[in-house]
Amino acid sequence: MKDFGEIKEQVKAKIAEVKDGAQLSEFWQSYLGKTGVISGLMKEMKSVPPEEKPNFGKAVNDVRVWAQELYQTKQAEIKQRELERRYERETVDVTMPALKRAPGNLHPITLIKQEMIEVFAGMGFDIYEGPEIEDDDHNFTRLNVAKDHPSRDMQDTFWLTEDLLLRTHTSPGQIRTMDAKKPPIKVLVPGKVFRSDSDATHSPMFSQMEGLVVDKGITLCDLQGMLDRFVQQIFGGGTKTRLRPSYFPFTEPSVEVDVSCFECARETEFLPGNGCPLCKGTGWIEVLGGGVVNKKVLENCGIDPEEYSGLAFGIGIERITMLKYGIPNMGLFFENNLDLLQQFKG
Ligand code: PHE
Q1: Rounded to whole angstroms, how far apart are CA atoms 113 and 105?
Q2: pLDDT 10s digits, 69-119
Q3: Closest ligand 1 atom number to CA of residue 288
Q4: Ligand 1: residues within 6 Å at CB?
Q5: Most buried of 69, 73, 90, 314, CB within 10 angstroms?
């Protein structure tokens, strides 16, 4: 009876040398594959006498099974070793100090915008945001700025087509609100606006906050009352407002609104209106435009001006932010200078 001792010795020696998956499959090919040594033994069957064939067959099979077991054990070992190596590679040292990641903070414009929204939301205003690309109709015509009206030149417009433009103010939000809703209306329209203008106090893109109230019996007094509350919350308790006559096609009467200078009111070395760098000695700072909604605008939106009246205002958010934080140049808001921006960490 053959026990294939020699082959078994060879197999044992070979499997002991196997270190990785590639060597393991080489081992399989040499011994257990179709052309391998053990498969080759079966071919010797021809020369075995008939009565010994069953025993010979069984012996070959025993060797095959034995070699397969060796193969499987090795395979499991290699897998386990690879797994351990992977675990080692992927181990995280939880005691290592973490990479420092500087936390971000909100941009001063965003901070003031949010603060303004909070103040007006407290007075019952809803928020609406209109599109930045507007048509002539919403940005000008229905706001009572006719095609050939000289007041179109008050704002240097970026035209996109003959009819489309980048909105020059948030006032088209008034029209869109009145188209969508019947009075009573109390809405705030924050957003970016665009004008071809650039210097220390102007930027081609800036932000406005439009306010619109339409109801029965709304007057200029309501406007001043709301704005008083607004400036007191933003600039401090004692701040007052002053209305000066002005002109906007969509309001009548129109006003320019000044706030009493909070800088000379705060700093004891400045007497109000006396040598203060912020108000240039006048005691007042201009902060926004507004007025009573022009009857023509109400009519353009299908609202009866005999029944309803309205007030509107437009506040430049950058201007309020510059005043509040003493930022001298509008360009600073858009430069992403970290030394500036990091001063606004909450
Ligand atoms: N839309 C005006 C501007 O951008 C501001 C304004 C708004 C004036 C609402 C009156 C009423 O200059």
Answers
A1: 14
A2: 999 999 999 999 999 999 999 998 889 888 888 788 999 999 999 999 999
A3: 5
A4: 169, 171, 210, 248, 251, 289-291, 312-314
A5: 314
